[in-house]
Every structure is written in structure tokens, then in C-alpha cells.
Write a structure and sequence with these properties.
This protein is mostly helical and 92 residues long. Helices cover 93% and strands 0% of the residues. The longest helix is centred in the C-terminal third of the chain and has 45 residues. The protein is rod-shaped and about 70 Å long.
């Protein structure tokens, strides 16, 4: 098995891990979205709870945005690796 093929297989495995992580993150986001909706309804009845709701929602959105950005950077790197490996394989 050539080094190029091994590297391509490692890249594909990393890609699958990323796909699984994204699916998991999407499930968590959906769950959090439902929770936020439920808390939003309760927050309308209590000003202090409303303030905490806004603060918590802001932190969750910031954290999710950061994680999605990290996954995007990993996906871009994997895409570049696949492109380089595919081009190198064509030259053989």
C-alpha cells in the first residue's frame, strides 16, 4: 500500500469523523433550540428569568458559532488534502 493511498484513507477517515461530529452538533443545536423556545415562554413571565435567558442564549450561540467555525476549518483542510492527493495521484 503506497504512502499516498494510506494518506488518502486517513483523510477519508478524518472526513467521516467530521461528518459524524457535524451530525452530532446539529442534533445538539436542535435540542438546544427547543430548550431555548421553552425557556423563552417562561421568561416572558419573569423579568429576571428573561435576563438570564438572554445571557444564556447569547453564550450558547457564541459557543456554537465558534465550534462550527472550527469544523469548517477542518473541513477546508480535509478538502485541500483530498485535492492535493487526487492531483498527486493523477500525475503518477
Amino acid at each position: 500500500m503506497s504512502k499516498l493511498y494510506k494518506r488518502l484513507m486517513n483523510t477519508k477517515a478524518s472526513e467521516q469523523v467530521l461528518v459524524n461530529n457535524i451530525a452530532s452538533a446539529n442534533a445538539v443545536v436542535a435540542s438546544m433550540s427547543n430548550t431555548i423556545s421553552e425557556v423563552s415562554t417562561a421568561a416572558k413571565l419573569n423579568a429576571e428569568l428573561g435576563d438570564r435567558y438572554i445571557d444564556t442564549s447569547r453564550r450558547i450561540i457564541t459557543e456554537c458559532t465558534s465550534e462550527y467555525s472550527k469544523m469548517g476549518a477542518i473541513a477546508q483542510k480535509l478538502s485541500n488534502d483530498v485535492r492535493l492527493l487526487t492531483d498527486a495521484n493523477k500525475r503518477k
